[in-house]
# Entry
Amino acid sequence: MSHEWSAMSLRSVRRAIRAAALPAALLLNSTSLGAQQHAEPFAGHTYQPGIDVLDYDVTLELPDTGATIRGDVTVTARRMAGVNVLRLDLVRGLAVREVQLDGRTVSATREDDALRIPLEGAAGDSVQVRVHYDGVVRDGLIVRKDARGRWTWFGDNWPNRARQWLPTVDHPSDKATVSWTVRAPAGRTVVANGTLVGARRLGGRDAGRTETRWREAHPVPTYVMVIGAGPLVQVPIPGGECPDSAGAGCVRQSVYVLPENRDWMPGPFSAAPRIVALFERMVGPFPYEKLAHLQSETRFGGMENAGAIFYASDLFPSHRMSEGLIAHETAHQWFGDAVTEREWAHLWLSEGFATYFATLWTRESRGDSAWRAELAGIRRQVMTDSVVQVRPVLDTAQTNYLELLNANSYQKGGYVLAMLHRMLGDSAFFGGLRAYYAEHRDGNVLTDDLRRALERSSGRPLGQFFDQWLRRPGVAEPTIGWAYDASSASVSVLVVQDPARSYALPLIVEVTDAAGMTRRVEVAIPAAPRAELTLPGRFAARPVSIVFDPDLFLLARISRP
Ligand SMILES: [Zn+2]
# Structure
């Protein structure tokens, strides 16, 4: 079945899209669709097997005041033969007025927070389902009147809150392109994923309102599909204006803030073009059409919505916005948004990368010692965190996804990348990441996809490394002692580990002799309950001291016998 799907030609996809009669100006970008087909064999959808949403075409009416919205969403999906129901997540609190299948009204049934749409009448494997609905949104789209009495609307979907305001297959394994048509009171700037297609004033009974259209031509997960609407002013970022002379590679960037925060903008966002340039050099081209940074409402400090990062509103009046946060959310555009975890348990592929890449920005902007200090801080958090001790990073047992926003996904995941980087070196590490990004951009991944890419780039098997750090709780806890043998002028190291939890460790050993000279050697500790290793080199006299892991680099609590 996955075969049939991935072998489907691009021409037949284009035909399906044409048949779906999307407006010509909004025709799906065929290259990104091609990539989606390639990266996303049908069998990979675990959330709703046999269904693959290709596109959402969303029209939203935002009121002059309050949280009552009207929505009209057309979902274009492919289905496998024999799949006769499309289940769209949508909370019960929103009233569904009409559901159409390929232009004909059908009766859908409500079931908890979902809408079951029968597909029996549809011809072929491509369907278009249109849902008209309205009601008061209570979450997902955060509607708020600020202290100055201005109404604002900001999408905030992570992890599965798109269903609070949009009918979607609300799971990261089903990525799709999205078009937004947002009608809002005049004076509200509307920003969304993708390219600005147009904005106009409405007339007639809609006089005093505007319509703004955006189009995201790359498939993205529902948790980063958003709009923001408010009395925002757009501030250009020097280096992110992209005049025609800048060429195709320039990434257009700007900041949108409430007018009272304009005076200190772009502030820390001045670094954004250099942050994007650094990550492009390391990983590959920026994945989206533009990058907007918005003062917004989000329950998180920042939210990496594709091409439109939302930052918590209160960071702006207090001038607490930091380059570190900007770098973290920007790194997500590659890791999380473009290359998306297929299952929530693999969230570290998003948050661990954002954590580690933020440190790489620190290294670039503030130098090596600041970088090392940041990594040491991350390591301390991992070593002392209570969740790290009892649960693995790949935590398939956790069903409360908000609980996955923990030191395992962020700090330990980030630190695992730091250890990989040091172990493999720049060339194999970044070479592997570039291949991983190139292969899975606009698609979905599991942890093994990353492992395979790094194994190919480094020529080293990494199964043990990935298993011990990601599929097991805690950190390494070896007992390490040493002995000197004068007859052979050698130092041997004895390592004892819990047989059930032994780690393979690249261990740096710092040896100091009686003259105060130190030398560093590296030994490979095997994942075994007991190992005796001889340090490389000759030691003419008994060392006066030996320090294991002198930089405190490993996630290891080392005891002496
Ligand atoms: Zn993050």
About this structure: The pocket of zinc ion is lined by residues 304, 328, 332, 351, 354 (CB under 6 Å). Residues 1-41 have pLDDT under 50 and may be disordered. The CA atoms of residues 305 and 344 lie 17 Å apart. DSSP finds eleven helices and 28 strands in the chain.
